[in-house]
Amino acid sequence: MQTAELLPPGDQLPADHPPALDGPISGPGVWRGPDLQNSDEWKYVLSSAERSELLDATENAAAQFDNIVDIKKSDFALPTLSGTIRDLKQEILHGRGFVLLRGLPLEDLSFAEIAIMYWGIGTHIGSARSQNTRGHLLGHVIDLGSSFENKSERGYLTNRHLKYHCDSVDIVGLMCLRRAKQGGASSIVSSYTIHNEMWARRPDLARALYGPIARDRRDEIPPGKGPWYELPVFNHYKGRLAINFLRTHIDMSQRHPDALRMSDEVVEALDLMYDLANDPSLHLTMEFQPGDVQLLHNHQILHDRTAYEDWDDEDRKRYLLRLWLSPPDGIELPQAFAGRYNSVTAGDRGGVTIPGMEKIVPLTPV
After folding, report:
1. What are the pLDDT digits (tens) for 314-325?
2. How confident is the model at residue 152 (pLDDT cuts 50, 70, 90)?
3. Residue 119 CB: number of other CB atoms within 10 A?
4. What b-and-e string marks burial along 276-311, b requiring 16 or more CB atoms within 10 Å of the CB?
5. pLDDT at site 155
6. Which long-range contacts (CB under 8 A, 24 or more apart) does 57-63 make?
7. Which of 45, 227, 259, 295 is deepest in the core (most CB within 10 A)?
8. Are 71 and 320 in contact (CB under 8 A)?
9. Using CA atoms, how far apart are residues 207 and 195, in angstroms rounded to an integer?
10. DSSP for 276-293?
11. Pick from 229, 168, 148, 234: which is nearest to 195 by CA?
12. Is residue 94 within a helix (H) or strand (E), and if so which, with residue range?
């Protein structure tokens, strides 16, 4: 059994993580779903003037650029909406950790124009990060059915239930193009609230999640790195709590003989965290409408998606577009996050980074 002190030099990160926060936290990031379920305070509906700004910016960018990846914030002018997006980003980073932007004017746009509009909004939040080893900066969330050969690795390309987790980037955005025939609801939960509940019920288990925990790189291995790294679930650093929960990656790490072994206490703590996320008294459920954009701070929000039944007509199938974004004003992270994020520099961290990988904005799912 390997311990943190025996990690190979230059391959894995040392276990010099910040000490545990001995007790609960407070602030706007601590919330319960039922208290927000019937509230509109977490939704922002675009005005007609803001919709017009988006259409104008999209038309101008489409006329100037052949390659979406070349469009920068300065190329996507939003005279009034940019200030709103800046305020919404502060709510995501320093408030309750999420917002739902509603009413994007998608009705008469081509798919490429929709992608430009979404990309342009993203440039006002942060830098787009690759979501796979193919360098895709725009993700397509759609059920590919029997044409998709690797369902176990990429659940967002299926219609199955996706359990509570967070993505490997600061902010994840999902834009709805089409809804499913039935199901496919989004459910989110404050991992800060989960942290506090664990301290109230089982402080021993909460404390265990501040220790080093092995994570599998799932064959996305940068040169010079090993197939696993270690990162605590709970990280309290410079006054902020950053939580990272990807149970699949944690469990898969145990296939490597030299990976840190999970103690019974850590397994029990991970089970409790998942049970709390699924507690109806904690999580918030929302149904997307076409033109909605959900933005989540992965360091304080876990998200889940219910299984869904889709339409037979290919042109009606549930379809979301995804962005992974790293804002230049993101929260400070401990060095341990570099094991997954490759860097802890705000604005230039997260996603899948492989040397020599060409970054592209694909307009088709594969």
Report:
1. 999 999 999 999
2. very low
3. 22
4. bbeeeebbbebebeebbbbbbbbbbbbbbbbebebe
5. 61
6. 57/117, 57/120, 58/109, 58/113, 58/116, 58/117, 58/120, 59/113, 61/116, 61/120, 62/112, 62/113, 62/116
7. 295
8. no
9. 10
10. HHT-TTT-EEE---TT-E
11. 234
12. helix 81-94
Find how far residue 169's CA is from the centre of its chain: 6
Using N-to-C axis directions, what is the helix angle for 48-64 and 111-123, rounded to 10°?
A: 110
What local confidence, expressed as pLDDT, does residue 6 receive? Answer: 33
CA-wise closest residue to 24 among 201, 197, 196 = 196
pLDDT tens-place string over residues 245-297: 999 999 999 999 999 999 999 999 999 999 999 999 999 999 999 999 999 99
Burial (CB count within 10 angstroms: exposed 0-12, middle 13-18, buried 19+), residue 74: exposed
Q: Which two tokens stand for residue 355?
A: 């040397």
Q: pLDDT digit string (tens) for 104-136?
A: 999 999 999 999 999 999 999 999 999 998 999
Distance between CA atoms of residues 53 and 117, nearest Å: 10
User: Residue 44 phi/psi, 5° resolution?
Assistant: -125, 120
Task: State the Cα–Cα distance between residues 172 and 158, nearest whole angstrom.
Answer: 19
Distance CA 143, CA 312 (A): 12
Cβ atoms of 269 and 277 closer than 8 Å = no
- The domain defined by 27-146+156-341 carries CATH number 3.40.50.2000: no
* Between 283 and 309, residue with greater pLDDT: 283
Taking a C-beta distance cutoff of 8 angstroms, is the pair 98, 36 a contact? Answer: no
Q: Where are the domains of the chain?
A: 27-146+156-341
End-to-end distance of the chain based on CA atoms, in angstroms?
40
Angstrom distance (rounded) from CA 164 to CA 273: 10
For the record, the structure tokens of 279 come out as 């507690």
